[in-house]
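Hi R.,

Here's the chain you asked about this morning:
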Amino acid sequence: MILNGKHITVLGGGIGGLATALACAQRGAKVRVLEQAEAITEVGAGIQVSPNGLRVIEALGLAESFKAISVQGRAVSLRDHRLGREVLRLDLGLLPADQDYRFVHRADLIDLLASRTRQAGIKVRLLQRGLSVTPGAPASVELANGDRVKDDLIVGADGLHSVVRPALNSAAKPFFTRQVAWRAIVPNVTGHPNEAWVHMGPGRHLVSYPLRGGSMVNIVGAEERIAWAEEGWSHRGDPDQMRWVFAGFGGPIRGLLDQVNEVSLWGLYRHPVARNWYGQGLALMGDAAHPTLPFLAQGANMALEDAWVLATCLDKESEQDQALAMYQARRRDRVARAIAAANGNAWKYHLRNPLVRGVAHLGLGVMGRLAPAKMLHQFDWLYAHDVTASG
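And here is the predicted structure, written out as tokens:
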């Protein structure tokens, strides 16, 4: 095992960072995680783990534990916003038996990964904010507390505001998409089934699905607006304003919106995929390399895939630079395609002209009834992809 004994520092204790640490430690690497927060935790939010992401969770040895904390998705249902009428139903039961689709509270997945990290003997240091990194053999990272950490490889799993990315790429300013996102978790007072519902309206849409055994529902709403909103997930929104924005949404979603007591609000920005994912002693993964808009539910899944492929490549190729080049080559086109698909979904959900929207919804409904399997299998390139199959 080439990774046996190699020293790796992972910057960032999120889903991608912890999965990277576990995948590398499985192959014998000596790994430590540096997290800037005071605890390994997450904001209250749900995520959808599609079959491609689940393959990595299984390969990390977490299959049964993950099933215990997640909800199995039965369908994806596209719905008209006004009355909640179903437009198109994608029956996830038509997927192959091994292509499970699950909903999970992000904090629960973080807890699971963090627990397995501790069991694996991986050192996790908190309150370690990186200021800058320097490529080299070894590479180094300067921390806000004055320490400088050196290692064979430093992996930037440090998200949108990565300190590793600027060391490998010229500055590229993201642009505001003129959309903001609202996120809330509420009690499941409406009996929301184990399905992801996409409520499509003029210039806005809402996604809802259950969490924690069906006792709670995750709600994510996207709204087109000219006014700028700051990027990030931790900005507090106004529940009454959210209800006003989505006032035209009826059916079951109305009862869930009435339950919102706390909501976060953030601006949606489009970032370019990094040109360079690696340098001497440095590598990028997850949002640090390829931030994506939340319209395909693939941010966490792409990070999980990155983690496995990075560890696999490092363990296949003795020359680290060649291993990292292999990693970028295996990942870049795929994540670019996923990001493009996510970018394209927003306008499909936000049709403003009632006539155009009615015709589009009618067409979706006809296709769903006549060729349900075909509608579902258009996502085979995404869900059926298994990064663990090659090692």
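One quick note: DSSP finds twelve helices and 20 strands in the chain.

Cheers,
M.
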